[in-house]
Amino acid sequence: MSYDWTDQDAVLEAVERRLTKTGRGKTGAEETNSAEEERRLDELRRIADLARKTPDREEPSNFTAGVMERIGRADRSWRTAFWAFLSRPRHIRVNLLHLLSGAGALALLIFFLVAEVNRPILRNTALLQETEKEYVVRFSYFDPEARHVFVSGSFNNWGKDQSPLVDPSGRGLWTGAVVMKPGNYEYMFIVDGRWVTDEYALRHKEDGFGRKNAVLTLGIDDEKAIKKSSLVHGSGLLASLCGKSVW
Amino acid sequence: MKFTTDSLIVEEVLSGNKEAYGHLVDRYKRPLYNLAFRMTSSVEDARDLSQEAFVRAYTKLHKYRPDKSLFTWLYTICLNLTRNHLAKKREVSSEDPNRSAVARGMSDRDCESLPDDLLIEKEETDWLERALQLIPVDLREAVVLRYMQDLPFEEVATISGISASAAKMRVYRGLERLRELRARQEQTDEL
């Protein structure tokens, strides 16, 4: 057989066969190479053989120690790396226009934050946020001495313990939210078993037992109805935290 | 503590015994160092690259799949680092600094006075290490993995991320390029 030198696989196979033989030259009866082909195959074998015989070099004596040291450095906690990133000195090029824009944005942010902090704290009242079809009403009642506070009204069939308010901070601000459809509702707080009128409600109505129910009007065209524009600070936050499954 | 298998060591390292990783380094430092050296022909680069390969492997050890060969995985990491390193070097200097060094080394070879067998062998392997730097990186890595690291074609293919037939083709082309360099050198020597 004479080699087709474009068939690289076959040539490589021939070289590899020669590598495994102790002697050089023809490796099989079927090979009938010309002297030129044989010389070329032998040159390839010599190169491969030389590569095989190249002795391994010895790695530096402290190789493993070096790796372990580098691993130790790479193992630094992310906090250290983060702090290093923050505290690294940098050269910053400043564009005056960008600087002024940034300062303006910062001033606006501070203005709104201050306005939020100075907002009057509401006592016991009902706040709400309009959703597409329903309202999320947030009730709040302030009494540091109270142990249990519920809100009871026509929206929960005057159930006494269906809608408890909670005081997560322990400072006497009892809050809770409930989802309601548009309409007129009456309600009262139940504080440690006592019925208490929401004095901060916009409207009241006699309850027939000598007390006053708070009246809540949602989504009806009435000047005293609580509308979206009158949404009070904080109700949105609570509503988003509580969602519709408050109770 | 005696570690018998790579998987045991990996398990031990992942469970928090960082020192156990030293056993893996000891086990594979020589082949990795030699791989990097034969690819770069630089003692410093070989040390840095092979050490970095171990560090990378350590930081990614949780990604290592025990059903695969750790040795192959380490080789792949080392080879990738080496390729990137060589690519950066090419960017820095369009002219391969090894080229002139190799050419000089080859022409000086003849000046030696009648060396003994060992010296001839040493000269030949030195020539090969230098000549390897003159052939393309993909062909170089194929020849190094197949003959100098003595890996089967299948493993060469896995480490290089190519098919076995492509690995064979690269090995053949690498040998051919080296043969041509050899022939050219011999012609120069005869002059």
Q: How large, in whole angstroms, is the Cα Rg of chain A? A: 42 Å
Number of helices of chain A: 6
Oligomer: heterodimer
CATH superfamily of the largest domain in chain B: RNA polymerase sigma factor, region 2, helix turn helix motif
Overall domain count of chain A: 2
How many strands, what sense, and barrel or not for the largest sheet of chain B? Answer: none
Number of helices of chain B: 9
Q: Please tally the β strands of chain A and state the result.
A: 8
- Give the DSSP E fraction of chain B (strand runs of 2 or more residues): under 5%
Largest sheet entry of chain A? 5 strands, antiparallel
Query: What would CATH call the class of the largest domain in chain B?
Result: Mainly Alpha
Q: Quick one: CATH class of the largest domain in chain A?
A: Mainly Beta
Task: Write up what this structure looks like.
The complex is a heterodimer of chains A (247) and B (191). Chain A is built from 6 helices and 8 strands; from the N terminus they run H-H-H-H-H-E-E-E-E-E-E-E-E-H. With 247 residues, chain A is α+β, with helices and mostly antiparallel strands. In chain A, the strands form 2 sheets. In chain A, strands 3, 5, 6, 7 and 8 form a 5-stranded antiparallel sheet that branches. In chain A, helix 1 (8-20) crosses helix 2. The longest helix of chain A is centred in the middle third of the chain and has 22 residues, at 96-117. Chain B folds into 2 domains: 1-94, Rna Polymerase Sigma Factor, Chain: A; 99-191, Winged helix-like DNA-binding domain superfamily/Winged helix DNA-binding domain (Arc Repressor Mutant, subunit A, Orthogonal Bundle), CATH 1.10.10. Chain B has 9 helices and no strands. Chain B has helices at 6-14, 21-40, 43-59, 70-92, 97-108, 117-132, 137-148, 153-160, 164-190. The longest helix of chain B has 27 residues, at 164-190. The radius of gyration of chain B is 19 Å and the shape is elongated. The model of chain B is unreliable at 94-114 (pLDDT under 50).
